[in-house]
Amino acid sequence: MLFEIIKKIENFIYVNLKFKKEREFLFTYLSQGLRNGASSKELLDSILIEYYRNKKYRMIKYLEDVIENMEDFGYSDIESMYRSGLISEIELHSIENIAKEELHKAMDFINTKTRNENSLKWAVGMLFFPSLLVILGYIIYQPELKALTEQLLSPVNNVSTEAIKIPEYFHSRTVFIQIFVGIIFVMASFFLVIEYLKKYNIKLLFKIFRITEREFVINNFESFLSLLKSGQNRMRAVELLSVKTDKVSGTIFTDMKTSLREGDVPISEIFLKYGMDPATISYMHSGERNNFLEESIEMILSYNIEKYDKLVKRLTKVLPLIGEIVMTLIILIPLIDIINVTTVGAMNFKV
After folding, report:
1. Whole-angstrom Cα distance, residue 252 to residue 216?
2. C-alpha separations of 192 from 43, 189, 216, 248 in Å
3. Range of the domain at 183
């Protein structure tokens, strides 16, 4: 039982941390090789040798399953990756049409999409992580913090008839634990609010967290454009994208599908319903009205990628900076209290 639990924890850590990095490296390698004329089978065989040499047994299993599905069962490269567990179902739907044109673009798309999904999480993590680290240090070393303060006060307390008291929160770990749990609660609440808005109020989500709107556009409209270029009409493209499992994409594209079926409502009207960027709405409205939908989607992608990059740069600078400032305050407050009791406080001794 314990062994199974350990294996599950180990697998969870691998899938959520190491696997993403190894998969990104693999897809970058495949993309570069495909651009230079190599076949996916040749590239997979070559990298498999290196994985054996470096004893990366989990990735070896993935790649052997991919090759088996390609050679023995005749599945396409992308379908084989899905059946082996290398990509998810939502990723399969996102790239299967891109892969029909140029497979390397499908690899690039997954890597870009994964990085896009992690940008906000990373920035928020850097907002809270420094403070959590410092508080954890205080929890661990609270007895030493108390002993140090008492040692600094001992010369005065040895001659004073009334002992100089140290700060109350130095006596136990309770306050530090409460602060630690409070930070965890705030961080969890932040992500729960995002999940709630994704499910019940996408318009408010896009208004408060503009980055989520940019991610929605970038992660979906590359697939939308690929479907249109492959010969699918607008309705069929929307139907295919509506099967996505993430809440925001599924809701919006299902809404598009219903609206198009019932009254041929323009996609730009759906964008307006969800409070999306006026420029995005205008590009889509212009494309639908003048019958150059593909060109308008290309402009939408270009515009949102530029805006997204600026948002990411700002968030990845501002949030970690705020986190460092809060961390510094948390470090300084106990130190200031130590200085106060050992200087100003020590002047109150009584002989």
Report:
1. 10
2. 41, 5, 18, 15
3. 109-351
**Is residue 314 situated within a structural domain?**
yes
294 and 237 in a single domain? The answer is: yes
163 and 284 housed in the same domain: yes
Could you tell me if 268 and 281 are in contact, meaning their C-beta atoms sit under 8 angstroms apart? yes
Query: Whose CA is closest to 145, among 164, 168, 124?
Result: 168
Distance CA 119, CA 116 (A): 5
Q: For helices 103-140 and 77-84, what crossing angle results, to 10°?
A: 30
* 151 domain residue, yes or no: yes
- Can you tell me which residue has the tokens 């044109």? 101
Residues in the chain: 351
Count of domains for the chain? 2
Residue 294: how many CA atoms within 13 Å on its side-chain side? Answer: 9
Q: How far apart are CA 111 and CA 104, in angstroms?
A: 11
Residue-level pLDDT, tens digit, the chain, 351 residues: 666 777 777 776 777 678 888 998 999 999 999 988 888 989 999 999 999 999 888 899 999 999 999 998 889 998 999 999 898 776 787 677 778 778 888 888 888 777 766 677 777 888 898 899 999 999 999 999 888 888 887 877 776 666 777 888 888 899 999 999 999 999 899 889 988 999 999 999 999 988 889 989 988 887 788 778 767 788 888 887 887 667 888 899 989 988 888 776 788 889 999 999 999 999 999 988 888 888 999 999 999 989 988 888 888 888 888 988 999 999 899 888 888 877 766 566 555
How far apart (Å, rounded) are the C-alpha atoms in residues 214 and 280? Answer: 10
Q: In this structure, are 60 and 199 located in the same domain?
A: no
Q: How far apart are CA 99 and CA 239, in angstroms?
A: 19
Domain-embedded: residue 104: no
Residue 103 lies in a domain: no
- For residues 17 and 116, membership in a common domain is answered with no
CB 164 within 8 A of CB 349: yes
